[in-house]
Design a protein that fits this description.
The complex is a heterodimer. Chain A has nine helices and eleven strands. Chain A is of the alpha/beta class. In chain A, the strands form three sheets. Chain A has a seven-stranded mixed β-sheet with strand order 2-3-1-4-5-6-7. In chain A, helix 2 links the parallel strand 4 and strand 5. By secondary structure, chain B is α/β, with parallel strands linked by helices. In chain B, 35% of the residues lie in helices and 18% in strands. Chain B contains 13 helices and 17 strands. Chain B has a seven-stranded mixed β-sheet, sandwiched between helices. Chain B is globular, with a radius of gyration of 21 Å. The N and C termini of chain B lie far apart (48 Å). The chains are: A alpha/beta, B alpha/beta. At the A-B interface, helix 1 and strand 2 of A face strand 8, helix 10, strand 16 and strand 17 of B. Strand 2 of chain A pairs antiparallel with strand 8 of chain B, so a sheet runs across the interface.
Chain lengths: 318, 411
């Protein structure tokens, strides 16, 4: 049993849950609210969510209702739960965590590998193969309840019994028993790596204006009418990963009519300027193509063969 | 039942019970308890779950109401107007573009004095690009509806019931607003009140209707000899609404113990400057006040009819010398944005400096950084400003914040 770090009951404690769209990060945050005995609220990060894109959900708990009154997003969590360790490659999961905070990760990797990812020696780590245990207990790799078994153990915010109560609110039928089995299993098996640094909530200050995403353009960078010139309305987001279809281009059957270029809703048709000044279609921007296949729809092709074709990712040609 | 969060409302609630639900489902629950006859709404993010929950409740027979599917928000409000005129207790819900589409039909609801209630899950409208997150589109139409706002899920649940009380007492349609996503998709714990209490709070009141015994015509053509008198009669009627709102708040308090007022003051004793705002932001400011006790918070719960005299009295009584308004709407070309304009008009006789700050549009978080800056700007404010409004918490250029005063940036 871990020694619970002493905490002021009236203080705000916040949890941030990292997941991929569809893994149930928001449900996990809701379960924290159900399980906590006292004032609590949770909400997702407000941004685009699609199956597979990294998402965040937050929970705020405190014995003092005034402490959780703010509807501000969470910038300085004390506990971070990561439902999928591949997220740690894409984004910084330890953002805003003060020394002595906790990172709880679903992983089969060693603590040294995880530390290398996060580059933080001053944090406590709790690692568990939640996916493996979830497949064993639920028959599916859904880890949102599992990770809370670990959170219950390291945080002491709620007990396993509280979590069982929460699961009974959230789930129906045999999922209740399976999930309760799962959290008990995780509770027993989670590996804990503590550092001897007391958590200091005062050192967890929100960096000034960090919510403004300053590395994006500003009001004066826009052209008249705020036209977007970037595919998918964002160069920085790999919206192509959301799509089910991969689009292929065959230049031999392209008559350069440019219909696909106008039809594409995401400006994901790539073109190159020729020596004579004309623009020719040369392919597809896989980073931003969501696989809607409108380009195939409009393609007149040559000799009865379309210049564009789609393939279900990881499947046979469509 | 197919929508699990709605479960508590599938049976009679006999005792006050603590629930944890999203704002939208809490509203769906409260509307269920008020026993409407007609529900007609067109789904739009971020209002969708409220109507989804209600369709579930109606589909499984828990609520005996007509759930009417229509092709647009314009049709939804037209249908609600007709249903309510026929005497039905009618509920609608919308947001953003849906609200803009139904604006054509909104004046008739107030013109005919129909007690429709409507949820607005406040969301930005689409210009110059599409955004589904929070902003205050509802301020765009001033057509005689009562408007209530909520800071959290408890308040939006309560507002769903109080709005109906106000609507039926005042015979004016009433919309209650919660901030899209910030409240509509957040799970908070709140106390639901027993069905019996809701029934006591919302008895069927006598309404004006047309019957075969007393035939008449609604919505006919009137000539220049008539319209102004009809508008004045509407305006005179509107003036009688505020006491009815107070009455509804009092009745609600006596049943539930939860005390509401048209304007609430939070830590205004002894302060020289205060922020006037409404909605979910009030919670953020109240938390920020812990470290900044020198700025008061004046929270508007009722936006229309605007509690003008009360606001003036509050500012006078507390001896507040400077006012900042925070709002999530803008009005290019106007002297200032909508909420700021109302506050400016209300406080005009006091002659104090007032500045309107535009924040949090399109789901931009409104944080302690914004409030720190507002405090700093209030400190610098002397006399009536040339520009009544300004944007804060926005990027001017790549890596540059729109404000010459902000030097301190860490990242």
């Amino acid at each position: 049993m871990v020694k619970l770090s002493s905490k002021n009951e009236d203080e705000l404690t916040s949890v941030r849950i990292h997941a991929r769209g569809g893994q149930g990060g928001v449900t996990a945050a809701q379960l924290v609210v159900y399980a906590y005995n006292g004032p609590a609220k949770c909400f997702p990060k407000f941004g685009a969510e699609r199956m597979g894109s990294p998402t965040e959900a937050f929970a705020k708990v405190s014995q003092d209702p005034d402490a959780i009154r703010s509807n501000e997003q969470v910038y300085t969590p004390r506990y971070v739960c990561v439902l999928d360790d591949t997220i740690a490659r894409d984004i910084c999961v330890t953002d805003g965590l003060a020394s002595g905070g906790w990172v709880i990760v679903n992983t089969v990797k060693s603590v040294d590998t995880i530390r290398k990812f996060t580059n933080r020696e001053d944090l406590n780590y709790a690692l568990v193969d939640a996916t493996g245990l979830a497949i064993e207990k639920l028959g599916r790799p859904i880890t949102n309840t599992a990770i809370l078994g670990a959170l219950a153990k390291v945080s002491g915010l709620f007990t396993l019994e509280d979590l069982e109560r929460a699961i009974k609110i959230q789930f129906r039928g045999d999922l209740i028993k399976k999930n309760i089995d799962l959290i008990k299993n995780v509770y027993d098996k989670v590996q804990i790596f503590e550092v001897d640094i007391p958590y200091d909530s005062k050192s967890a200050e929100k960096p000034k204006w960090n919510h403004l995403e300053l590395n994006y353009g500003g009001a004066k960078d826009y052209e008249i009418g705020v036209v977007w010139y970037t595919p998918g309305a964002s160069l920085k987001v790999n919206t192509g990963s959301w799509g089910a279809y991969e689009i292929f281009f065959d230049p031999d059957h392209c008559i350069q009519c440019q219909l696909c270029y106008f039809a594409c809703p995401d400006m994901a048709i790539t073109r190159e300027q020729q020596d004579n000044g004309e623009w020719n279609v040369v392919g597809t921007d896989a980073m931003h193509c969501k696989g809607c296949r409108l380009c195939i729809e409009v393609c007149p092709g040559k000799d009865g063969i379309k210049a564009r074709s789609a393939k279900l990712k990881g499947e046979e040609e469509f | 039942m197919s929508i699990e969060p709605m479960e508590p409302f599938f049976k009679e609630i006999k005792d006050p019970i603590e629930l944890a639900m999203t704002g939208n489902y809490a509203v769906a629950g409260a509307v269920t308890q008020t026993d409407p006859d007609v529900i007609c709404a067109f789904p739009i993010t971020p209002q969708t779950q409220s109507v989804e929950g209600l369709s579930d409740i109606v589909h499984y027979g828990r609520l005996h109401a007509a759930f009417v599917n229509v092709e647009s928000e314009h049709a939804a409000m037209t249908f609600c107007t007709g249903a309510c005129a026929a005497g039905a207790r009618t509920f609608c819900a919308t947001a953003s573009q849906g609200y803009l589409l139904m604006i054509e039909t909104l004046p008739m609801a107030s013109g005919w004095r129909l007690p429709i209630t409507m949820l607005i899950s406040a969301r930005a409208f689409n210009a110059p690009n599409l955004n589904i997150w929070n902003a205050w589109e509802f301020t765009l139409a001033d057509v005689g509806w009562n408007v209530l706002l909520a800071e959290n899920v408890q308040e939006t649940y309560d507002n769903a019931i109080i709005s109906l009380m106000i609507a039926e007492k005042s015979l004016f349609p009433t919309m209650f607003v919660h901030d899209g996503f910030i409240i509509s998709h957040a799970v908070h714990k709140f106390m639901a009140i027993p069905d019996e209490q809701v029934r006591r709070l919302t008895p069927q009141l006598k309404r004006h209707t047309i019957t075969p015994e007393k035939p008449g015509m609604w919505g006919s053509v009137v000539t220049p000899e008539q319209l102004m008198e009809q508008r004045l009669s509407l305006d005179l009627a509107k003036k009688t609404v505020p006491p009815k709102i107070d009455e509804a708040f009092k009745e609600f308090e006596s049943e539930t113990g939860r005390k509401y007022e048209q304007i609430e003051t939070i830590k205004c004793d002894g302060v020289k400057s205060a922020i006037v705002t409404m909605g979910s932001m009030c919670g953020n400011i109240a938390s920020w006040q812990k470290k900044n006790p020198d700025i008061g918070l004046i929270k508007l719960r009722v936006y229309r009819p605007f509690p003008m005299l009360e606001l003036r009295k509050i500012v006078q009584n507390f001896g507040i010398e400077k006012i900042a308004v925070l709002e999530k709407s803008d009005a290019p070309g106007a002297p200032t944005a909508q909420v700021g304009a109302s506050v400016l008009a209300a406080l005009y006789p006091l002659g104090i400096p007032i500045k309107d700050f535009i924040v949090g549009e399109g789901g931009r978080d409104v944080t302690r950084d914004e409030f720190d800056l507002v405090k700093q700007k209030l400190g610098q404010l002397s006399g009536i400003p040339d520009q009544f409004y300004e944007f804060i918490g926005v990027r001017e250029q790549f890596n540059k914040i729109w404000d010459p005063n902000v030097m301190e940036v860490s990242k």
